[in-house]
Protein 1
Amino acid sequence: MRESYRGQCNLHLHFAKQFLTSLDQEPEARWGGHYARAMADAVVWQLQLSYRAHLADMLTQQPKFPQQLPKGDYFACDFKASELPPELLELADRERHTPWLRAMVSERFINHPGAAVTVEVSGLIAKDSLATHSQGAGELEEWLEELNSLIARHRATLMEY
């Protein structure tokens, strides 16, 4: 069976939802206290993959705008053609100006020594976490809902073409 970009988008959305459920259900102490970070990173990674597959689907479903997909990691702002589908132009703008999408596409997963650190104090135990990994389950759930809504709206628009 041949894979489609739309199918891959749906699959990665499903995986993101599953990882988010695991994040909510597992105890914080699992994996030496790193379980929450591992699951949060897994959710963000699956959301990024779903978003990239959605971009590819949008581009390949509109033959009026022939364009090659960039190699490797890409987001809407990486497309350079003068003529792009209006949905990709919208997403390129939203990647710069919409807080949840900007945060999702800018996540790079690697903590750099010397980066800003936030400290959570709970009783007598303090837990360090870098600001780049501060997404909680609530924020990630918002990202998932927003991405689902965005994809549904774009797919409805494609049906009009």
Protein 2
Amino acid sequence: MTFEFNSFIHLIFIGFIALFPVINPLGSAFIVSPYFSGLDRQERLNAIKRISLYAFLICLVTLIIGHWILELFGITVPIIQLAGGIMICKTGWEFLSPPKQENTEEIQTGNKNLSHQLENKLFFPITFPITTGAGTIAVLFTLSAHGSSKTISQYLINTSAIMIAVLALCILVFICYINANRLIKYLGSQREKIINSIMAFLIFCVGLQIAVEGITQLALQIMKVLHQAS
């Protein structure tokens, strides 16, 4: 019994340590912060609650049936990296582009539609692939294989341990996301603009990095197939 409990705690620790670098709650908090500019406190709180919930559900589905879903549609992780990276690059480019001049009526209309526009981005790309991307999926696949067992009871115990680690990270995501704006505002309005510009550039770079990783993995797979064929 003690051995099983120690294994349970060990798997929670392993899951947390493995997922922390790929989710990176603090770094992601600064990257997604520009999305929340213009929202009041309650709207921001509601948005971050939903992002944290979406992140947990993505990890849950990935851990339990994600592998079969990818096989069903014939999608590989490199393709997810490439497509997600392109979309993140697009978002970063939009943030980097200078805002167009708007009259008072357009600004008022824009403020009314701001919350609705964010609604369409809460799942994609904020939750996926910025908060929980292809790297998270790959790690969860690995953890799932690591926690696999011949007995149903042990499999459920191992999966529960990994999900506790995921839940802890999602709570950490919520805490970091909700407090990132306070830190940025503490630095002042001018510095806030500078940080937002830097974060926009980082969003573009993150997307480019994810896309390049996808291309690299695709190239390696193609080379492997060609090598086997020869």
Protein 3
Amino acid sequence: MTRLEKFPYFISYFLGYRKSNHNKKPIPQWRVYVWSFLAAWIGIALLEIIFTYSESFQNHDTPMIVASFGATAVLVYGVIESPLAQPRNVIGGHTIGSIVGVIIAQLFLNIQHNWISESQKTAVTWVGGATAMALALNLMQLTKTVHPPAGASALIAVVTPNIVEMAWFYIAVVVVSAIVQVTIACLMNNVERRYPQYWWTPHAPIKIDPLTVHTLMPSSDEKVPEEVVSDNLTEAEEGRLQNRSVSSQVSTCTSVGVVEHALLVLRKHVDESDTPFALISPGLPIVATHGLLSPSEYETLELLLQKLNAKAP
């Protein structure tokens, strides 16, 4: 059970959770455009209202909006399935970008107040801006929070004079902006779409290299204990089966019993990991998580399998 399942469904629904029997209905493209427009308008307008009329922000000469959040709006309202638009990347990326930008601004610009010439300050500014953006990128890569607009948040903190004067308060402005954008995205994008796809890590599919599939379904003349097959499956899922030598002589005759056994191991593994799945293969019955397929969907897949079986050599 995921953590979102513990919330009432009307709450978890707007946090991106869907039940296994949820029937996703395609919507016309024009409605996608309408929802994107409305969400982006509300998200940007709300930030402008907060920073324009809030006395606590105006006391620090906060700009109406940090420009990098225009780019964030494109991602979280228009390309909502992208990994770059998920909450971890949006909030984490902007937080890292703002912190790095402020630190570089303090080190490069605020320590020295008596510049020899304006050209010297200009040179230090562009060097600091490039340093902040590049360093923020590396930290986002290390933390898996890459969010392109966050690079602009780091850059703005160094090259925009009034932002440099805000110093550490700029971090609060950026974090609040990121949280507001994600909140509006959750409310608006879940009316007819789904956002986020995940909060922390994506649901990675089971990865099985075709060259190593024989480790899951050994040839009929090999007897492999269930524990070995299960261990091999786990290794394949985690992507650790790399550069393993494959015998040039792989048996082309695999018994149905071994195949069925491998399917049972696969199903058991997926059931224990609480991951919805459907397995469809010619000559074999449809195997799916309970409640995942509706009766009409099941019948459609049965017809498709019949056609595949009819055309099989």
Protein 4
Amino acid sequence: MRPLILVWILLVFFVAWCASQGLTPSNPNITSSKDERIAIASAALERADSMLQSNGKFNDSAYDTFTRFYGQMAEFDRLTNQTRYKQSLKQCFDLDQPPPEMPIPIFVVHTPSTYYELYYGYAAAQAYAAYHDLYFLDLAVTAWTSANQATISEEQAASGTVDATLAGGTYRSMTPSDPNLTGMESGLFLVLSALLAEATSNQTYLNAAIESANFIQSHLLNPSNIVLDSLSSNSNDSCSVNSTVLPYNSGIFIEGLAILASITHNTSTEALLRSTVIAIAIDTQWQGLDGIIDTTDIDGHHIVHALAALYKRNTTSSDLREYIKGYIGVQYNAVIEKATSSGSNIYGLPWTGPPATSFSSLNQTVAMTALLSAIQLVANEPSSKSSDNPTSSRTPIVNMVKKNVTGAIIGGVVGGVAILAVIIARHCKGNHAPLVVDEHSPRILTPFMATSALVEISQQHRMIQTKNARCAVEASRRQSSASPGEVDADATRMNAQIESTAPLVDATNPPNLLPTERREDSLQTNELMRLLHERLLRGRLNDQDDEMPPEYSEGGTT
């Protein structure tokens, strides 16, 4: 009886609180035409381009900012089917090429942090996707080969020189004394490997991407499906994990999974992708109650770009695809309405405002990701995959809660459910075990998703995380590594030019891809929500007239 009383007390409290707050999600509807969105993005790109110095760099930010801008120039050309920036990009990349007496690119010499060269390769891979010019592919392969030196291979792990569970992890720095295998570097290596696998059909790149994804899932993905910062490979650190949550790590991971899933069509990868997308989209650590990302770092870039990559490849169910469209729509509207002044073409951070008054290359490039991502959004485009619940008659989940009391009630129920899940979990354990609270677990937020739809999705795909054994051997850096899979540059070019007549080895069902096993010591929040939802329906609502949340019109674009 006591749990049921607590249920209703908390529900009443949250309904009243939310109604008093007047929670109002932001607008996911993009009303401008595609041509108008292209014009807005073009003006922002031109403003940034005018700020590049003669060396192809900005004077106010780090290396990753201008390489991010290189990728955005290529992305704009791909989205608009033109080559406006192709020659400019070649000139910019040429500035980072070594003189004849230097055998490796300047970016490798002057940048000890692995992520710099990964950003460089990532931009080159985006340029190759836009122009299909082998010049850019060679640059991407060079960056990949260099970053591969900082990545633990499956062969290394099998040899016993490092712990077997660390295969696929990438070190933060090229400096041998740095023991940290990070979410950012491992994620970027996953993305670059997946992009090269997508571009060349080379199995070596695909294997590398799978290894990186497995590493992140096994070691850095917390129970809430959020990627943590890093893991120390020192044996005396016992594989200790730095549990700092940096949202861009999850964004990078999602992008890598999106590309990987489009290649392998592996159901485990698709389920993991769905779970991580939902986790990143509902966490209020980096977005407000209006659903707008409100950080002042590169988080918005990686989150939105990852969702756009998934939307582009159209490999997810229609309900999640519609949700992604609405999520991007919220960010786009915030950028053009709150982060810039009319006609300035200068954008600021955070996207919640106030508008920028001066140019910042960091702020500009992060905002341009939202502008570019919105170009490809279209209204009522069917997904290549049907919803995971074909019998469902619900509207797509990219549904905004209306500005009324019913919307507040929905928010209240969600908040109540989140706390009630904890209470029920403790009650079910009979108070025989302490309640472990993960300080990084997301507070549940559904700014434009109907509560019932969220529960339905969470039921369908619940991420169950693997926990591997602690490290027993101190990791050592790779002393030597061949170019991808012993494949020379000529073979790489051949793969890029000629579509392979044979499918990738086990590409549709790679062995041991993202294995999962159930954690017996704790239930996922989504499952607790589902159990509570079912319990409430059975216990209290059977004899009442069901009043379902109202159906809302989906976010649209022109």
